[in-house]
Amino acid sequence: MISTLNDIRGLKITIMGLGLHGGGIASARFFAEHGAFVTVTDLRNKHTLSPSLEKLADLPIRYTLGRHESEDFTSADLVIKNPAVPRKSKYLQLARQVETDISVFLRLNTRPLIAVTGSKGKSTTVSALHQIMKAADPRVLLGGNITVSPLTFLEECLSPSSSPVILELSSWQLADIQPITLLQPRIAVITNILADHQNSYENMQEYAEDKARIFAGQDAESPSICFFDDSYGPWFAENTPGRPLFYSAKPLPPEIGDGAFLDAGRGYYRVNNTLHEIVPPEVNVAGVHNRLNLLVAALIATIQGVPTEVIHREGAAFSGIEHRMELVEVIHGVRWYNDSAATIPDATAAGLRSLDGKVHLIVGGTDKQLDFSPLNAAWNLAASIHLLNGSASDHMQKALAQQQVPFSGPFDTLGSAVLSARSAASPGDAVLFSPGSTSFGMFLNEFDRGRAFKALVEELKTNKTLDELDQ
Fold this sequence. Notes:
Elements: E1 12-16, H1 23-33, E2 37-42, H2 50-54, E3 62-65, H3 70-74, E4 78-81, E5 98-99, H4 101-108, E6 113-117, H5 122-136, E7 141-144, E8 165-168, H6 171-176, E9 187-190, H7 204-212, E10 223-227, H8 233-239, E11 243-248, E12 259-263, E13 266-271, E14 274-279, H9 288-303, H10 308-317, E15 326-331, E16 334-338, H11 345-354, E17 359-363, E18 384-388, H12 391-402, E19 408-411, H13 414-424, E20 430-433, H14 446-460, H15 466-470
Parallel strand pairs: 1-2, 1-4, 2-3, 4-5, 6-8, 6-9, 7-8, 9-10, 10-11, 11-12, 16-20, 17-18, 17-20, 18-19
Antiparallel strand pairs: 12-13, 13-14, 15-16
C-alpha cells in the first residue's frame, strides 16, 4: 500500500492502458520519476500510441504493446488500470493489487476536494469553476477526467492547504476507487444522468449507482448538489450521507428550501428565503444547459466564499471549452460549431436548442446501445441533416425516415459531410458538428474527431474542393 512517495521506489508497477488521453502517460511518468520499475501494456500498437510514446521517450520504461502478457501482471507489485479497462479483465484478476491514478492521488492528497460527475456538463462545470475560483485563489487545482491526471500536481498537494482540488470524475473512475471512502469531497455534484455507456452497464440503475459513489464518503455537513429536474435527482438526494442541495432550470418550489435556479436568464442562490444573484444575464456560452453549468459553478464558488463580484466577472467571461459547443470560425457569414464531445443523443438535442437561426447538423457515428428517442423531438430544429456513416447512423436513418425528415448521406468521410453542410448553409446560418454518438473506427476518440473537424473548417477558408478535403 502506498502511503508516502518513498513507498514507490523500487516497486514493480504495470500501467494497464497507456491510452491517448493523458492519464496513462501521467501515471507512467509519475511512477518512473519516483523510482519504480515501470512496464506499460496496451492492446493498441506502437503506431497508434506513438503520440503518447513520444511523451515518455526520456524515461526507462518497458513496453508490451499490441497484446497483454500474464507475467506483466503476476510479477507486478502494483497494477495501475486505465478507467476504460473492464474491471472484470482476466489480467486484473492476476494482479496482487490494483489502483488507478485517482486512487493513488487520494491516498496521498491532503487538500480539500470538490468532486463533480454526471453524464454531461461535468467538464464545462469544472472548467468554469476553476476559472472562477482561480481568480480568487491561484493555488486552486483541476484534474481528473478532464484529461489532466492529478498525479501531475500531486507534490503540490502533500502539505495541508485550504486551496481545494477540483476533480472531474467519470462513472468508471468512481467505480475504480476502492474503498470509495478514499474519496471524501467537501462538495460533491452530479450534474445529470442521461443514457450513456449502456454497452458497459446492465441497466441505467447500475450506471446511476456508480455515479452516486461520489457522495459515499461525505459527512452530514458536506453539500451534495443534485439536479432537481433530473429523474434521478431526488434519488441521489435521498441516498447521500451529505447535505442535499438542489439546483434547477426554473425556480425551485418553496418547500425545497435552499438551492439554486435559473429565472429569466439570471441565476440565483436562495438561502433562508433570500435570493442572491450568482449568474448574470449576459454570458459567453450558448444554451440553457451551459447556463446551468455556470449556475453550478457559481453555486460552488459561493459556498466556498468567493466574492460575488469575482463570480459575476469570471462567470460572464467564461467562453466554454474545446469540443463543447465551440465556435470554430465564421466563414462567409456561416458560424461553424464543434460539439464533438456530444457523444449521446441528448447532448446533440441540447446543442440544436442552443443556437439561433437556421442550424445545419452533422451527426452520426458508432452506436453504444443508447436510446436515440431524445433526438426525435429535435430533428425538426435542424434546417438540414448530414449523416456520417456508422451503426448509430443506421438507427438515425430509420427515425428520420419514419418522421419523413430529409437528410444527406450517410457519408464515409467527415470531409464529405462538411462540404455537404457548407452547400446547404447561407450567411447567418450555423453548422453544428454534434455527432450524438462515438466514432470508433473513423477516429481515435471524440477529441481526435473534434480536431479533425476544426482542421476541415480551417481548410474551408481556402475554398478546398471535395477531393482535397477527403484526402
